[in-house]
Design brief:
The chain is mostly beta strands. The chain is 1% helix and 61% strand. The strands form 7 sheets. It has a 22-stranded antiparallel barrel. The radius of gyration is 25 Å and the shape is globular. The two termini are 21 Å apart. The model is unreliable at 1-24 (pLDDT under 50).
Length: 730
């Protein structure tokens, strides 16, 4: 198990000079026991993890298999402080207490997700299932200079394998509880002297769900099908020029985000009653259903002009996401949501990079992003005479119909340079100027029982432009060949925007995060120990915060927050084949000035009154005081093959879901384990188990607005799963 920390970053923009092939991200160790170098590209060039003055965490493909990580939602197993939640099929990543739990057209998260250097703007597309992965990198802290989209809190980058000219591949078949079947296939080959290509397939289906809908008797938390295809074509024209084309397609249908009212909680009339049941059970008159279809293509051109390298990345993505769920979460016919969300995006990035290993190294570039996302439509359907107003003609409202489209056009120029002041001391300065325009075209109608359509909110056709200079300033000092210390000041920015789900909520302003960080990286005992750590302080202004409304969830601005903490990771390999990793993060997050927040106050009837209140001094959302992750991996020769065993542990001290600090996820632990045997012929078998203690952990929770009243809702991450995988590498 070759591991460094899980924190740093997105890159797929690799220059020809020093290009990192995805399968070569870990170089051989200096001895047969010590750790080899892990190569990252957090500064747009290939560098050893231990030499980069940034908090970087890396998870390799081998570690993904060992720890039982199957998608972005599992990254916390190896990355304390990284949380990815799922609500109604939208990915909500949070790093160091920075994130937003809002899913709506054109609403982007302050944590960016990239795959092979391409930014995924649509939150439904970012719930990635891992296959064909070479490495996952996460960067904690603002990304305000070198990366495509401004990211206030950090980013996660998934890097897939590059094809090889030699024929090879891998196939796997898995079976696990809940009658879950999963298969993957990866093939790579040469198609001539200069062209190589691969294709990766992953598919799964569940015969049973984790729970039941007691109103219908049908299974919920079930994946009906999930199919993913990805192909990469690599053309080496000559020693100076490389062209890479990537194509991907996904199709899925599930009811895995079956939200429910909190167990035994009260529900505002006329809805209810709430169902007690088990964590993964629901009791709703409408079946949840989510369908996603999407894909994209990208073209990357790398050319070396004899020292200065050019990288160009062009990408286009398109998807459609359809959903239906019960918006009162009870068996009483009340409110139902039906929506269709089409997304499309185009991006173009150009970079120029200086040669490496010079006194001054630099990167210059420009980035263009054009995206459009819509509800076509978003409908709230009402059932029952007591839940809709009666009009003078005797008719009632049976639905609200929202048609809304949010567009984004952004252009940015950036540059960063590192100067070696001495053999050991270096200074870095980077700047980026962004100009971004957001537009909203929307209308809200009400549909009456007579079939008449009445305008409720007249058409909105508006826009706004946001401009900002962001930067990175850093110093690093190499104490000796094995120890680096550094300090940095980074500014991140996320533009303002509109609320296409809740048109009555005003537009929100940009948020700005100033981050101050000091850290160290050390390699000890003949590379048998890797010990890295960081201390950080965030000054967070105009925080964009989620707010529930009768028509969904929107965003508004809190005045400010402060977040500070420390993290450390140690990797031990004292004998060959036996690895220990231990990581810890302490986090303290507070809203320092937030007097006009929406808060939920529990009333005598057992549900919530929603009102305005002061949450200054409250914990920031999803900010656990302590997170711990640990793993032990053992490998030994056995017969003609190799036996490996892994156990991974994750602890979270608990956190609040919303700024009012009403709903809390209490502290919990997750344990994963696996045993695997690889034969010399490439065949292998693995027994594995995830969440072995069967802990019910909230994947999402919040107070749902029922028109001035509220009830707590919740959805859960998977329970205990276990199974067997057989595979063949060739």
């Amino acid at each position: 198990m070759r591991r460094a920390l899980l924190l740093a970053t997105a890159i797929s923009y690799l220059p020809i000079s020093g290009v990192v092939y995805a399968q070569d991200v870990v170089t051989p160790p200096a001895s047969d026991v010590g750790y080899g170098d892990i190569v990252v590209t957090a500064q747009k060039r290939s560098e050893s993890l231990q030499k980069v003055p940034i908090s970087v965490a890396v998870v390799t493909a081998e570690e993904i298999d060992q720890a039982g990580i199957t998608g972005v939602a599992d990254l916390k197993i190896s990355a304390p402080g990284v949380e990815v939640q799922n609500s109604n099929g939208y990915a909500y990543p949070i790093i160091r207490g920075v994130g937003a739990k809002v899913g709506a057209p054109g609403v982007e998260n302050p944590i960016a997700i990239y795959v092979d250097g391409v930014y995924y703007a649509a939150a439904p597309a970012a719930l990635l299932n891992f296959n064909n992965i070479a490495q996952v990198e996460a960067l904690k802290g603002p990304q305000g200079t070198l990366f495509g989209r401004n990211a206030t809190g950090g980013l996660i980058q998934v890097m897939t394998r590059d094809p090889k000219p030699e024929f090879g591949g891998e196939v796997t078949l898995s079976y696990s509880n809940y009658d879950t079947k999963r298969g993957t296939a990866y093939l790579t080959t040469g198609l001539g002297e200069k062209l190589s290509a691969d294709i990766a397939f992953a598919g799964m289906t569940m015969g049973r769900g984790y729970g039941k809908n007691f109103s219908s008797g049908k299974d919920v938390y079930r994946v009906h099908h999930d199919i993913n295809l990805r192909s990469k074509w690599l053309l080496d024209l000559d020693e100076q020029t490389k062209i890479t084309a990537i194509f991907d397609y996904s199709d899925s249908r599930n009811n895995s985000a079956g939200q429910r009212i909190l167990r035994n909680a009260a529900v505002p009339p006329p809805f209810g009653p709430a169902y007690g049941g088990g964590p993964w059970d629901i009791d709703t008159d409408t079946e949840p259903n989510y369908e996603y279809e999407g894909g994209g293509a990208s073209l990357r051109i790398d050319h070396d002009f004899g020292g200065v390298s050019l990288a160009s990345i062009t990408a286009y993505r398109k998807s459609s996401y359809d959903g239906t769920w019960d918006f009162d979460y009870t068996s009483t016919p009340g409110r139902q949501v039906v929506f269709t969300q089409p997304d499309r995006q185009f991006s173009q990035e150009v970079q120029l990079l200086s040669p490496s290993n010079q006194k001054i190294t630099w990167v210059l570039g420009a980035y263009y992003f054009d995206a459009s996302s819509a509800y076509e439509p978003l409908q709230f359907r009402y059932f029952g005479a007591s839940q809709t107003p009666r009009f003078p003609d005797g008719s009632r409202r049976v639905a609200l119909d929202i048609q809304s489209r949010q567009g984004t056009k952004s252009i940015a120029g950036f540059g960063q340079a590192t100067v070696k002041i001495s053999d050991r001391l270096s200074a870095t300065a980077g700047f980026r100027y962004t100009s971004e325009r957001r537009t909203l075209d929307a209308i809200q109608n009400q549909i009456l029982s007579t079939g008449e359509v009445r305008v409720m909110i007249p058409r909105i056709d508006t826009g706004d432009r946001f401009k900002k200079l962001t930067w990175r300033l850093a110093l690093d000092y190499q104490l000796n060949d094995d120890t680096l210390i550094y300090g940095s000041y980074n500014r991140g920015f996320k533009s303002g925007g509109f609320n296409p789900t809740s048109l009555l909520i005003p537009p929100y302003d940009p948020e700005v995060l100033d981050a101050y960080e000091a850290g160290f990286k050390s390699t000890l005992l003949d590379r048998r120990v890797r010990f890295n750590g960081a201390f950080f302080f965030y000054d967070y202004k105009d925080v964009q915060v989620q707010v529930p409304s009768p028509t969904g969830t929107g965003i508004y601005n809190g005045s400010g927050a402060e977040i500070y903490g420390a993290e450390a990771e140690i990797n031990l390999r004292l004998v060959r084949g036996f690895d220990i990793r231990l990581a810890y993060q302490y986090l303290h997050g507070r809203y320092v000035d937030f007097p006009l927040a929406q808060i939920a106050v529990l009333n005598g009837a057992g549900y919530y009154d929603l009102r305005t209140g002061d949450v200054s001094g409250n914990d920031t959302v999803l900010s656990p005081k302590s997170t711990v992750s640990a793993s032990v991996n053992y490998e030994t020769e056995l017969g003609s093959g190799k036996l490996g065993a892994n156990i991974s542990y994750y602890y979270n001290s608990g956190y609040y879901h919303e700024p009012d600090n009403v709903l809390r996820q209490n502290g919990y632990s997750i344990v994963n384990a696996s045993v695997r045997y690889d034969t010399s012929s490439g065949l292998y078998g693995q027994f594995w188990g995830r969440n072995l203690t069967n802990r019910a952990v909230a994947n999402f929770s919040g107070v749902q607005n029922f028109g001035g009243l509220g009830a707590g809702r919740i959805a859960y991450a998977p329970p205990r799963t276990y199974g067997v995988t057989v595979g063949w590498k060739f």
